[in-house]
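TL;DR need structure tokens for one chain.
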Amino acid sequence: MSELNNEKTTNEEGMLPASENVLSDEERREKESEERRLRIRKKKRKRVLTVLLLIAAVCILGGGVYLIRKIINDRNNKKVDEDYNKAKEQVHLITDFWLGDVDAIEYTNADGSYRFEWIYTNEEQRIGAWKNAADAEFPVHQTNVQQLIDVFCNLVGMTEMSSKEVDLATFGLDNPKITATVFLKDGRTPKFQIGIDAPFEEGCYLLDEATGNIYIVDATARARLSAPLRNFIQEEVFPTAKVDHITSVEVAIRGEDLQVFEAGKDENGAKIYPKIFVDCGSFPADTVIEYACKDFSKYGLDNPMAIVRVNYLIDTRDDEGKAISVPRSMMLEIGNTTEADNYYVRVNESQYVYIMQKVFVDRYLDTNASG
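>> reply
TL;DR here they are.
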């Protein structure tokens, strides 16, 4: 019986009954879920591994690029350092003072000898101004004098050479036309001679008398020290008039009838301004010849060839604070022509004499185009 029972528990192929070999739906779902999780984990591991490999490759590549760049930069920096050191060997500091250390400057050029001194107008507050030592009334252009002195402040030069080892005539220093002495507050008086322009580097030759050395310095030194004294005259401040504030312009040319230009109106009642109003808003005379002229005949200004008078209004307020318009006028007198075909002029009968460019004068005198 026992053998018979054992035979009943297995089939002919020795397999368990089919009912025992089949998974339930719930078991099958759990199994599929587990298999899916395993597949997802494998994919994640693969992605992470791929990213890590990419990062490693980028790091290796980046390190190589950095190394290459570093090698190139090191070479470039070395070249820059070498060039800098070479240039440094050629650049020489000639002076070690600045503008505030200077009490005066004397210089000589083809036109004469001049001296500008710093004079305190308020010793306590250390307020002062540059003055012309030869003429206390000379209206000094402060900025231009400062720029003149700046030439020698912390001055640097190239190509140092000894004056004892060269022919001074080669550099225009055997009989220099420009010399300068700077007077410092500490008592030092450095002296310099300016030679001819150097053939390169936009420079000129300078001799430092203290050391006897010759240098090439910026050509600005020669240009500023060659300037005539009139370049250091402070110009006047001319009045200006807005076009819509000009009431009329009168042009009197010698031998011709007086012409008067006034604003008109168009068919809609709007104002129309003559072209000459635009040209006469100010007088562009910027080159001073004299600041205290006593003989205007040498400029043809004792009997001007033309006079231009601009009548205009200025906006102001009366004593009670009420806005009012007050009439004003400015006058330009035009004299002889210069060698360059420009004109000598003066403004508002002042003692100053200026040069005005021909192109501006022509605008005032071309009355046909001005109307």
